[in-house]
Amino acid sequence: MTGAAKKEIRRGTDVAPFSGIPADFPYRLDSCVWEITLACCFRCAYCGSSGGQARENELSTEECLDTARQLHELGCRRVSMIGGEVFMRRDWAQIVEALTSRGIAVCVITNGFSMTPAILEALRRVNIESVAVSLDGPEEVHDAYRQKGSFARAIDTIRTLTDAGIPTSVISALRADNAPRLPELYEILREYPIFAWQLQACSPMGNASENRIYVKFDAGAVLRFVKETATSAPFAVGVADNIGYFTPEETEGGVRGAPGAVFTGCGAGLCAIGIDSIGNVRGCESMYDPRFNEGNLRERSLASIWYDPDAFAYNRKFDESMLSGKCARCEYGSVCAGGCRSYNWFAANTLYENPLCARET
């Protein structure tokens, strides 16, 4: 088949190739968070995606390799690969290599429980950019929400990765119980040659919502901790997009990686997307609600979703008048656009007001 009649065949579904790129299209895909499986060796009490069992009919190896091709063709430069637990999918290395061989940087995020020599060798072989290990606090805090022994295994994985010369970072999901204990976790982490430590707010979705885990913490205190720690830490310390915004710590203290770097609005559908293990595409993989699905890769090509003039409307058609509550009154509302869409939605059932904002308005 050629020309207009040409089809891409994907598991029995005809997906027409896309050729309708709008002129002067303003949005460039830069990054993707890709959940390649929901299978996990844990069932964490606060897991936003309720991981544990693989979904029925997860994308096949062939479909994942084709997705890697489509990401490359759209110009995507970076993929964060998540689960579930990435390493529980047998073809994970093949999928990673399909990305890195095309020049796409890949970070794998892991719970660090099942590192093996075979996985370590595969990480070397596929030219991984980095591995991020989830660690939520001192041992009793971390193990309480995962399983006994998981802290020790995560620390051992950090040691194994750094000893092997693989760039390694740590990600901590903050809740009411562990945010005050960041200084203790820092004293543990400073013993290892990681290159970065990222702090993010645990969102009240998935298991966290079902288990009624109290997630709200003092974001201002976290920002002050980061500012004070970052000046002397042997690795970069910073906050994710769902913590902020526009406090002196952010505007002056380099809590987003560099002095003066500030949050300039949610990038979902503007420069970033999320893909789940059955091919649903959203602006952000943390927007774990079917109403934010823009399409499925078994029905539409990634390009047709990205270039759809009606897709990602909550961001692409945003204007300042959509801000609500304290964000509508804030002098920085037009810049941060109300903060993290995902956290707003699951914490307060709104998109344009951030209930965790550290700035008093």
* Average pLDDT metric: 89
Side-by-side strand order of the widest sheet: 9-8-7-6-5-4-3-10-11-12
Order of helices and strands: EEEHEHEHEHHEHEHHEHEEEHHHHH
How many strand elements? Answer: 12
> Radius of gyration over alpha carbons?
20 Å
Shape: globular
- Biggest pleated-sheet summary: 10 strands, mixed
CA(first)-CA(last) distance: 61 Å
Q: Treating each run of at least 4 consecutive H or I residues as one helix, how many helices?
A: 14
Strand percentage lies at 5-15%
Class from secondary-structure proportions: alpha/beta
Low-pLDDT residue intervals, each spanning 5 or more residues: 1-13
As a percent range, the share of helical residues equals 25-40%
How would you describe the overall organization of this protein?
There is one protein chain. By secondary structure, the protein is α/β, with parallel strands linked by helices. 30% of the residues lie in helices and 15% in strands. It is built from 14 helices and twelve strands. It has a ten-stranded mixed β-sheet. Strands 1-2 form a two-stranded antiparallel sheet. Helix 3 links the parallel strand 5 and strand 6.
